[in-house]
């Protein structure tokens, strides 16, 4: 059998396709599960379980479902499954609630036709459908998996350990944290590009071990290849580094919400509420050097919170030049001639060289007198600290890929005012940067169907953020897959490995 | 002190050790609680200036008696009185504290009886400081020097550590320490059995000289009958925790009455009898946990009869033996 | 013997109970477990409901009692990270760790004893000195560095041995074994050496020291005086006596091999309990941590008991439990 | 006297230590005849055990023989290769150590240890060896040997253990037994039993014995001849009667006087002042001279050689010890020594005074 | 009756064998120089070498702030431009970075010196904590015996169940979860020290306890009891000094172990932050550059750690042999 072995630094945490929104896991689910609408090798929307769709009215989307599709348990795929999945994906406990518009109502027209009825027009309503996988209603009901695994469950969810999709691969073995085995599904409806009979996934957390496994030919694919090891992989002769721009933008956020900064030498006020301080921070960070040294040239410095490929007019934005002197002056002007101290939160196993970036930031800020106490932690602890409900951070680093591949997501999730927490906006606006203007623009953009006007509104929004120094964008990191020369596959900028595009010389 | 009031009186002294297995074992194996009568009803007295010796085979309870006499081990029964002061009576605690300084012990292994990390000067001075006998460092040092000279060492030796001395010298230091606290009663538990004969002679002579000069009273323990013969004014013979014969030094050695005493004396090789084979007595000392009934010596005794196997003989006229009482002793 | 076993069993239960209590009280100190269970966007009311349903509002002792009861029934709770019963997770990972620990121990014991005996018998040879020096280097470098250097040498540069994982395993009931396949056996080599190196050094030094002591004893002199062959003296008498104290230490070490395996497992991505534990620590997955600690304690206690029994097999003096041994 | 079983000539043993080479044995010569028991006495550290170990070839490193020769039944054994020497041990020379508890391997049954020894030296089958082991145990007076043979050493009492050790030493019927303080750890009553046993067995088997001990009493009872050692040399050697009743060497005189006896009353003991020198500081000349009451000029310079005292004067050049059972190493008895204080007569030339501690 | 020596005119001392050279009073150090320990030390070239290395490394570590070219803990001194420079002697080496720089432009030499200092401080403090705890508990257990002893020893058994890293991991994990980001570097150091202290005390306690039980039965303790000294006084004045030898040996070996443990914790991600690296942190960081050819980032800290631990171990070994009377 032609076996493809691959290793990732993290794990496929759960097989339930609605439980965790994480690129690699979603990609892996994509081998076994399928969605109505998928994205092709260039990230364009493409039909999958829906052979075609149309919008008879602006608020009605009609999907014509593919016939003769079978789930892995042998049952047929029908409109009931779509309606069931639409309900399940928006149920409590799902991590993908926003993938399907919350106001959408799904109506069965016949066994192979489904309508989605919206309350108001939405041009991007199906943009996130590619990661909404369709599950079998009968299977879920039979196995008590009709709801996404609830957090407080005292017994494990069946769906977390078992899979029943329509995709080209069947997951025959899944040991959480250890290995997962995919086998070709003989009853698949379509033709599969992949010539792989079996794919074995292993988690290898330790970077050195992971690289060693690739170099010694024990695995055919690894992700990520640490930046410093890329030359070595390239020169090894049996593997190459597939590098490419990633959609994720890495940026720094500042707490503009609390009245007194946590864990800081400044008492009684919050320096970040002063735009001059934010500007000083922005100007003090020499992103070019970070990209060159820390990222070894494998990063694109960015002036925006979105990747250039996702926004047509991104070329119009420029990063203000590094200027430590001016930064220092701004600080003095703001009343901090001797700087101040604060704590920075940073993950150390989430993004490429994340901790090293933070360290570089710390030493650059030290030069304008700002003493940063760096608190670098594994992602699990980091996110538990900085995300809702505590938002326990003063200064932090995160990376963001708009799941809709669209700028609205940035204006809404990253730059939207959190308010009292009920606005729904700003879920990832950890420092609560807040500009009513941006909120208004985001609403406008959501309903705007004219793409030119839409782009202008977006530009207005981004200009506002930059003008108020709301965030400090750093760069788009590069993807770095280590791939055996025996293997051909497709690397999409969303960093998902799709098994059905993998081929290996036997 | 009149001759009627002995210096040391030991009365019905008993000591029982619990040697049972742990509780759980006893429960499971249904084994009873086991006790070992190390000392069983021992009584004797020592007059001032006298040397009383205890002899007996290993395990007969000599050391246990000694440790009870000096108060290192509480007796299970009976009493020890020294100059009339009880070593156990709580009402006489204050008097006993004063008495402490006058009772000292010399141990078998002189090296083990000294803290190897202490200098000889500190070792000898320790009782002086503990009992607060002399004030002032200089005075203490002078006294230590004098004590070392007394036992035949040089005052400068006070600066050395015990390991720098030979066995005999160490035992001298131990004696100097015992004397440091104005002791008048010394208990020696085999004080020379770790030493060579020639060194033993030095120490035995020293002990006797000190006794003559300072009027010391000794309780002297040894398993070497010849040494006991040399040192003792009176001798007690112990067997399995009991005193089987007590008497004046000469008496015991010239006219032993108890068969055990006779056996012991017969077993001693003597320079006087070159080439003579001894008549070894059969058997070894029985297990003290499970002693034979009646007279504990009966399994090894050539004179044992039915009474000996059932009835424990009392110590009368200095001997605890049915045969002696019944006049069955051969000449 | 029965009494001995009973007493030890009782002590073991006490030890386990204490470990359990410690493990349990970590729930208290590690903060609110609910935060570890739910996502960031869970409303306060739902959190309270979860807390109530998990019984976290009860007094500590009640919680401990319930926990102990659950543990006795084999229920160790649900992992926060994996949302799966901890018992199942550990059971799945246990064969990997035990096989690794077994191989590492066998390696440490055989090589350690051989080298120790050699160093004691030929204490002044160059080779003996070399063994001692090299063994010290083994304890002077952190295990993880040794592991990575081994990978670098044997996997990447020479390409002889795998760098991660267990290779192919065969399932025998619930147990998975790597002993039955070639890849499985090869995969065991590097991790076993890495894990066993430290213990090997200890055992070697212990054997050497003990053997030197034993060689000085009277019964060895007497054995020589009886004209026994050198071989009989060294291996029949000296080594056997040396092993008595070595067994205890080796037993203690065996327990720590299992605990130490967390580092080796991390380096070699060995899918065992140690790896699970490290992830649990990083993710504050307390049910896993607690269960792992309990399990290690149980294994340790069992090994200790086995060592004590072995002891009595080797040393006849210990078979008599009466007070009258001379 | 016929050809001796053991013949030691001018034996020298040194310990190489960091403080230099220490001469533990310095020119020791003696013979033991067939069936003879030679007692070796002397203070602790005199070199008794080292002599025994040297004879059986078991000196602990860093000790080694640096001179002299040892012959067993005429054959030189100190130069034998290790493997051949091993076959001499146990087979031709047996050994008994002081402490019977520590002499036996605690992990093996008594029978296993005896059978092991027998089978190492003979071709007996395991069954035959076991039968022989039971016989041996019976011979040394262990009751119910067929049952006790399967016991472990710790199940035996001290006296019993020493009997087992003796049985082991006799297992291969050696010509010579070296007994290093075989009774020191035992009670007097048991001691008497063991010594009597040893004597009987040796007489019956014609085995020669080198009996090392502290205890003059034991020597007096058991030995035919006695060697008094001091600081690595033999001070005096001769028949027991002569040495005990009429010692000549001042050290032997002191030693005999220091021994308390049952018959003697409670007078003072004679005492030799001071202590034996350490190996690191052996005085020049006669090692005993700093303690000797009869010391004279030559003692401080010249080391005294053994002088025959029983038969014809030894100055004829013949080896003093080979044919003569008696010798003393003291200048007092050297007819050539002009300045010696008193002639050697029938009376002991020296006497130690049991002087009381003087009170000034 | 009293023996007054003043009035008792004494005979001249009996001859006592070899004449006693009157010893001049000497200081403790002079005594050490004259002792067997020192003599055995002088004979052992290995021990001397080990001591030289140890002293050198201690010296370097504790003078780091004065001799290091850079303060690697001060972020303002790090220039990203200088990152990943090889050692001076390599082709691209650059002054003043003698041993090269790491990925943050940190001077490796300075980092090693400061890291050494931090590792040593943790090791020494860890040993101090575990030693104090262990000796105290061992004394109490050995002295009081009975139920106290049983309790202490059962606790020790439980403790033995968990090797150092497990305890450290758990303590660290729980503390971090409890205090979150509030832990600064000093608190982290304290945490590691406490973890090490908690996991290493058993050995001391067991050793001290068994020594105390042996010493307690010795005649010199009986002699002291006879004088009427109270048991605590006897324990402290008589027994304690006699158990220091083995304790010292354990302490040496444990110092080495503690340093390794800290390094291992670093590897598992619970050690010191990368901004304030110990040797362990440096090795963990440098590990990442092992395959990429930037060997100097791991090699020099690794060599420093191995050298230090090896030297201390050798010293401990020698000490163990030298203090073992049976081996002399
Ligand atoms: N602490 C103890 N616990 C249990 N049994 C003891 C204890 N101390 C002494 N014994 C027992 O008491 C008996 C008498 O012991 P003791 O030490 O008094 O004998 P001894 O006559 O001094 O013997 P030795 O000549 O060997 O010194 C022995 O059987 C001994 O085993
Ligand atoms: N292994 C050794 N290293 C150094 N010196 C030694 C060694 N063994 C013995 N000696 C020395 O050799 C001398 C003779 O020792 P030996 O054991 O023969 O004395 P001994 O007469 O048997 O004394 P004891 O009566 O105490 O057994 C002693 O001074 C002793 O210190
Ligand atoms: Mg006694
Ligand atoms: Mg000897």
TrEMBL record, chain B:
PROSITE patterns: ABC_TRANSPORTER_1 (PS00211), ABC_TRANSPORTER_2 (PS50893). Keywords: ATP-binding, Nucleotide-binding, Transport. Its main location: membrane. InterPro entries: AAA+_ATPase, ABC_transp_ATP-bind, ABC_transporter-like_ATP-bd, ABC_transporter-like_CS, Oligopep_ABC_C, P-loop_NTPase. It comes from the Bacteria. It is a peripheral membrane protein. GO terms for biological process: peptide transport; transmembrane transport. GO terms for cellular component: plasma membrane. Residues 14-265 form the ABC transporter domain. CDD domains: ABC_NikE_OppD_transporters. The keyword Transport applies. Pfam families: ABC_tran, oligo_HPY. It is found in: Cell inner membrane. Gene3D superfamilies: P-loop containing nucleotide triphosphate hydrolases. One of its GO terms (molecular function) is ATP hydrolysis activity. NCBIfam families: oligo_HPY. Belongs to the ABC transporter superfamily. This is ATP-binding cassette domain-containing protein. The lineage of its organism: Bacteria, Pseudomonadati, Pseudomonadota, Alphaproteobacteria, Hyphomicrobiales.
UniProtKB/TrEMBL annotation, chain C:
SUPFAM superfamilies: MetI-like. It is a multi-pass membrane protein. Residues 94-311 form the ABC transmembrane type-1 domain. The keyword Chaperone does not apply. It holds the Pfam family BPD_transp_1_N. Keywords: Cell membrane, Membrane, Transmembrane, Transmembrane helix, Transport. The chain crosses the membrane at residues 12-30, 98-121, 133-160, 172-198, 243-268, 288-314. One of its GO terms (biological process) is transmembrane transport. GO terms for cellular component: plasma membrane. It is found in: Cell membrane. Belongs to the binding-protein-dependent transport system permease family. This is ABC transporter permease. It comes from Methylobacterium planeticum.
TrEMBL record, chain D:
GO terms for biological process: peptide transport; transmembrane transport. Residues 307-360 are annotated as: Disordered. GO terms for cellular component: plasma membrane. It is a peripheral membrane protein. Residues 8-256 form the ABC transporter domain. Keywords: ATP-binding, Cell membrane, Membrane, Nucleotide-binding, Transport. SUPFAM superfamilies: P-loop containing nucleoside triphosphate hydrolases. It comes from the Bacteria. Gene3D superfamilies: P-loop containing nucleotide triphosphate hydrolases. InterPro entries: AAA+_ATPase (IPR003593), ABC_Ni/Peptide_Import (IPR050388), ABC_transporter-like_ATP-bd (IPR003439), ABC_transporter-like_CS (IPR017871), Oligopep_ABC_C (IPR013563), P-loop_NTPase (IPR027417). It is found in: Cell inner membrane. PROSITE patterns: ABC_TRANSPORTER_1 (PS00211), ABC_TRANSPORTER_2 (PS50893). One of its GO terms (molecular function) is ATP binding. Its main location: membrane. Residues 318-327, 340-349 have a biased composition (Low complexity). Belongs to the ABC transporter superfamily. This is ABC transporter ATP-binding protein. It comes from Methylobacterium planeticum.
Automatic annotation (TrEMBL), chain E:
The chain crosses the membrane at residues 46-68, 120-148, 160-179, 185-202, 246-268, 289-315. CDD domains: TM_PBP2. GO terms for cellular component: plasma membrane. The keyword RNA-binding does not apply. Coiled coil: none annotated. This is ABC transporter permease. InterPro entries: BP-dependent_transpt_permease, MetI-like, MetI-like_sf, OppC_N. Belongs to the binding-protein-dependent transport system permease family. Keywords: Cell membrane, Membrane, Transmembrane, Transmembrane helix, Transport. GO terms for biological process: transmembrane transport.
């Amino acid at each position: 059998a032609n076996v493809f072995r691959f290793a990732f630094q993290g794990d496929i945490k759960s097989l339930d396709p609605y439980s965790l929104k994480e690129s690699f896991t979603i990609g892996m689910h994509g081998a076994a599960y399928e969605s109505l609408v998928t994205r092709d090798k260039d990230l364009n929307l493409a039909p999958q379980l829906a052979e075609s769709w149309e919008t008879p009215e602006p608020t009605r989307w009609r999907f014509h479902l593919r016939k003769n599709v079978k789930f892995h348990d042998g049952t047929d795929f029908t409109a009931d499954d779509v309606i069931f999945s639409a309900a399940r994906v928006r149920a409590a406990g799902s991590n993908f609630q926003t993938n399907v518009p919350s106001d959408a109502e799904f109506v069965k027209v016949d066994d192979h036709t489904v309508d989605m009825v919206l309350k108001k027009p939405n041009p991007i309503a199906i943009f996130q459908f590619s990661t909404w996988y369709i599950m079998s209603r009968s299977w879920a009901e039979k196995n008590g998996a009709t709801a996404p695994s609830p957090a407080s469950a005292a017994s494990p969810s069946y769906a977390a350990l078992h899979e029943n999709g329509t995709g080209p691969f069947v997951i025959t073995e899944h040991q959480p944290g250890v290995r997962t085995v995919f086998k070709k599904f003989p009853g698949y409806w379509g033709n599969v590009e992949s010539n792989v009979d079996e794919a074995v996934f292993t988690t290898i957390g330790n970077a050195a071990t992971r690289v060693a496994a690739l170099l010694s030919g024990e695995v055919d694919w690894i992700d990520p290849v640490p930046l410093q090891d890329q030359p070595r992989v390239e020169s090894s002769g049996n593997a190459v580094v597939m590098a490419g721009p990633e959609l994720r933008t890495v940026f720094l956020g500042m707490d503009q919400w609390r009245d007194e900064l946590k864990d800081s030498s400044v008492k009684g006020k919050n320096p970040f509420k002063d735009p001059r301080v934010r500007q000083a921070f922005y100007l003090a960070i020499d992103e070019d050097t970070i990209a060159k040294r820390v990222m070894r040239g494998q990063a694109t410095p960015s002036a925006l919170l979105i990747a250039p490929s996702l926004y047509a007019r991104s070329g119009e934005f420029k990063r203000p030049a590094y200027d430590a002197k001016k930064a220092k002056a701004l600080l003095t002007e703001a009343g901090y001639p001797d700087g101040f101290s604060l704590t920075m939160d940073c993950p150390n196993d989430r993004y490429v060289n994340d901790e090293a970036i933070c360290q570089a930031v710390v030493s650059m800020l030290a030069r304008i007198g700002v003493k940063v106490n760096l608190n670098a932690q594994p992602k699990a602890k980091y996110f538990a600290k900085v995300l809702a409900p505590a938002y326990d951070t003063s200064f932090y680093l995160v990376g963001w890929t708009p799941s809709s591949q669209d700028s609205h997501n940035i204006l809404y999730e990253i730059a939207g005012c959190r308010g009292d927490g009920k606005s729904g906006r700003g879920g990832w606006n950890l420092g609560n940067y807040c500009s009513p203007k941006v909120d208004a623009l985001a609403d406008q953009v959501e309903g705007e169907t004219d793409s030119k006007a839409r782009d202008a509104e977006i530009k207005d929004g981004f200009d506002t953020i930059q003008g108020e120094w709301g965030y400090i964008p750093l760069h788009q990191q590069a993807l770095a897959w280590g791939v055996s020369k025996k293997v051909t596959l497709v690397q999409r900028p969303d960093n998902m490995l799709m098994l059905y595009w993998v081929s290996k010389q036997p | 002190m009149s001759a009627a009031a002995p210096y040391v009186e030991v009365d019905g002294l008993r000591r029982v050790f619990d040697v049972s297995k742990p509780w759980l074992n006893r429960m499971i194996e249904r084994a009873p609680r086991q006790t070992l009568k190390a000392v069983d009803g021992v009584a004797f007295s020592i007059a001032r200036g006298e040397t009383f010796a205890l002899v007996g085979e290993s395990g007969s309870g000599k050391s246990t008696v000694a440790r009870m006499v000096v108060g290192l081990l509480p007796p299970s029964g009976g009493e020890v009185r020294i100059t009339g002061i009880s070593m156990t009576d709580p009402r006489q605690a204050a008097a006993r504290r004063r008495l402490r300084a006058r009772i000292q012990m010399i141990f078998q292994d002189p090296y083990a009886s000294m803290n190897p990390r202490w200098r000889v000067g500190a070792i000898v001075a320790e009782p002086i400081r503990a009992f607060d006998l002399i004030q002032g460092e200089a005075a203490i040092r002078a006294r230590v020097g004098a004590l070392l000279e007394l036992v035949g060492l040089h005052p400068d030796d006070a600066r050395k550590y015990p390991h720098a001395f030979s066995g005999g010298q160490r035992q001298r230091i131990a004696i100097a320490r015992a004397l440091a606290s104005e002791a008048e009663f010394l208990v020696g538990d085999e004080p020379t059995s770790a030493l060579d004969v020639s060194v033993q002679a030095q120490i035995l002579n020293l002990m006797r000289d000190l006794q003559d000069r300072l009027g010391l009273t000794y309780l002297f323990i040894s398993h070497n009958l010849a040494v006991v013969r040399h040192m003792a004014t009176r001798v007690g013979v112990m067997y399995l925790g009991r005193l089987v014969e007590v008497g004046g030094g000469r008496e015991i050695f010239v006219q032993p009455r108890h068969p055990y005493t006779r056996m012991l004396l017969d077993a001693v090789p003597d320079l006087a009898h070159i080439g003579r084979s001894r008549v070894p007595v059969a058997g070894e000392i029985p297990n003290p946990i499970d002693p034979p009934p009646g007279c504990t010596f009966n399994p090894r005794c050539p004179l044992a009869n039915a009474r000996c196997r059932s009835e424990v003989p009392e110590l009368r006229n200095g001997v605890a033996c049915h045969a002696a009482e019944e006049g069955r002793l051969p000449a | 013997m029965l009494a001995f076993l009973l007493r030890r069993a009782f002590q073991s239960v006490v030890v386990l109970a204490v470990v359990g209590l410690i493990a349990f009280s970590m729930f208290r100190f590690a903060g609110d477990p609910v935060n570890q269970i739910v996502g960031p966007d869970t409303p306060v009311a739902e959190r309270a409901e979860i807390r109530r349903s998990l019984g976290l509002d009860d007094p500590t002792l009640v919680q401990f009692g319930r926990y102990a009861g659950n543990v006795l029934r084999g229920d160790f709770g649900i992992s926060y990270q994996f949302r799966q019963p901890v018992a199942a997770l550990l059971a799945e990972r246990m064969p990997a760790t035990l096989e690794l620990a077994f191989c590492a121990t066998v390696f440490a014991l055989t090589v350690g004893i051989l080298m120790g005996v050699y160093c004691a018998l030929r204490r002044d040879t160059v080779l003996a000195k070399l063994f001692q020096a090299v063994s010290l280097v083994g304890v002077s470098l952190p295990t993880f560095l040794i592991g990575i250097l081994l990978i670098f040498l044997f996997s990447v540069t020479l390409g002889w041995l795998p760098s991660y994982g267990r290779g192919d395993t065969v399932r025998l009931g619930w147990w998975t074994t790597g002993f039955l396949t070639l890849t499985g056996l090869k995969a065991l080599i590097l991790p076993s050496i890495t894990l066993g190196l430290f213990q090997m050094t200890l055992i070697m030094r212990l054997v050497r020291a003990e053997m030197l002591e034993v060689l000085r004893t009277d019964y060895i002199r007497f054995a020589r005086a009886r004209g026994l062959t050198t071989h009989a003296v060294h291996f029949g008498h000296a080594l056997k006596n040396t092993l008595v104290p070595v067994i205890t230490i080796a037993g203690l070490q065996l327990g720590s091999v299992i605990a130490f395996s967390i580092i080796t497992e991390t380096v070699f991505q060995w899918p065992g309990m140690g790896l699970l534990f490290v992830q649990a620590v990083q993710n504050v997955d307390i049910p896993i941590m607690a269960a792992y600690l309990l399990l290690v304690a149980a294994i340790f206690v069992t090994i200790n008991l086995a060592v004590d029994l072995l002891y009595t097999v080797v040393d006849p003096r210990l078979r008599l439990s009466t007070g009258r041994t001379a | 006297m016929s050809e001796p079983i053991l013949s030691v000539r001018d034996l020298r043993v040194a310990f190489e230590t960091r403080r230099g080479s220490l001469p533990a044995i310095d020119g020791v010569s003696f013979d033991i005849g067939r069936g003879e028991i030679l007692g070796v006495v002397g203070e602790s550290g005199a070199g008794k055990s080292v002599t025994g170990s040297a004879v059986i070839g078991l000196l602990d490193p860093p000790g080694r023989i640096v001179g002299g020769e040892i012959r067993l039944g005429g054959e030189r054994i100190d130069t034998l290769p290790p493997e051949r020497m091993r076959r001499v041990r146990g087979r031709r020379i047996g050994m008994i150590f002081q402490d019977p508890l520590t002499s036996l391997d605690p992990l093996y049954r008594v029978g296993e240890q005896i059978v092991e020894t027998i089978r190492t030296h003979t071709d007996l089958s395991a069954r035959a060896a076991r039968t022989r082991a039971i016989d041996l145990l019976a011979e040394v007076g262990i009751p119910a040997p067929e049952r006790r043979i399967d016991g472990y050493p710790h199940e035996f009492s001290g006296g019993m253990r020493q009997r087992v050790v003796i049985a082991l030493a006799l297992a291969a019927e050696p010509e010579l037994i070296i007994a290093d303080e075989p009774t020191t750890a035992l009670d007097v009553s048991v001691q008497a039993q063991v010594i009597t046993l040893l004597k009987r067995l040796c007489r019956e088997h014609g085995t020669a014995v080198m009996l090392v001990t502290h205890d003059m009493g034991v020597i007096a009872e058991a030995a035919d001849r006695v060697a008094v050692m001091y600081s690595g040399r033999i001070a005096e050697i001769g028949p027991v009667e002569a040495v005990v009743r009429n010692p000549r060497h001042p050290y032997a005189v002191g030693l005999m006087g220091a021994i308390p006896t049952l018959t003697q009353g409670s007078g003072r003991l004679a005492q030799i002042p001071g202590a034996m020198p350490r190996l690191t500081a052996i005085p020049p000349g006669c090692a005993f001279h700093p303690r000797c009451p009869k010391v004279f000029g030559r003692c401080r310079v010249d080391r005294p050689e053994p002088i025959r005292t029983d038969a014809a004067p030894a100055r004829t050049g013949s080896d003093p010890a080979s044919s003569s059972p008696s010798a003393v190493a003291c200048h007092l008895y050297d007819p050539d020594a002009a300045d010696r204080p008193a002639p050697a007569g029938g009376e002991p030339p020296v006497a130690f005074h049991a002087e009381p501690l003087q009170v000034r | 009756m009293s023996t007054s020596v003043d009035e008792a005119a004494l005979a001249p001392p009996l001859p006592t064998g070899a004449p006693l050279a009157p010893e001049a009073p000497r200081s403790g150090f002079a005594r050490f120089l004259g002792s067997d320990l020192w003599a055995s030390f002088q004979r052992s070239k290995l021990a001397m070498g080990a001591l030289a290395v140890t002293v050198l490394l201690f010296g370097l570590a504790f003078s780091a702030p004065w001799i290091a070219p850079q303060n690697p803990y001060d972020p303002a001194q790090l220039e990203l431009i200088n990152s990943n420079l090889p050692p001076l002697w390599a082709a691209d080496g650059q002054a003043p970075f003698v041993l090269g720089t790491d990925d943050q432009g940190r001077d490796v030499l300075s980092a090693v010196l400061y890291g050494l200092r931090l590792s040593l401080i943790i090791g020494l403090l860890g040993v101090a904590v575990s030693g104090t705890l262990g000796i105290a508990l061992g004394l109490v257990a050995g002295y009081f015996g009975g139920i106290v002893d049983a309790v202490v020893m059962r606790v020790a058994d439980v403790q033995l169940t968990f090797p150092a890293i497990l305890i450290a991991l758990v303590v660290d994990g729980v503390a971090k979860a409890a205090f979150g980001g509030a832990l600064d570097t000093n608190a982290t150091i304290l945490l590691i020290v406490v973890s090490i202290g908690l996991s290493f005390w058993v050995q001391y306690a067991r050793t001290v306890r068994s020594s105390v039980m042996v010493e307690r039965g010795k005649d010199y303790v009986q002699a002291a009891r006879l004088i009427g000294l109270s048991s605590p006084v006897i324990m402290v004045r008589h027994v304690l000094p006699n158990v220091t030898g083995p304790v010292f040996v354990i302490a040496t070996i444990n110092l080495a172990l503690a340093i390794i443990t800290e390094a291992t914790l670093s590897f598992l991600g619970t050690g010191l932050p990368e901004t304030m690296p110990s040797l362990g942190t440096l090795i963990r960081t440098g590990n990442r550059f092992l395959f990429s050819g930037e060997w100097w980032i791991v090699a020099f800290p690794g060599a420093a750690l191995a050298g230090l631990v090896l030297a201390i171990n050798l010293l401990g070994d020698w000490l163990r042999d030298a203090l073992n009377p049976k081996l002399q």
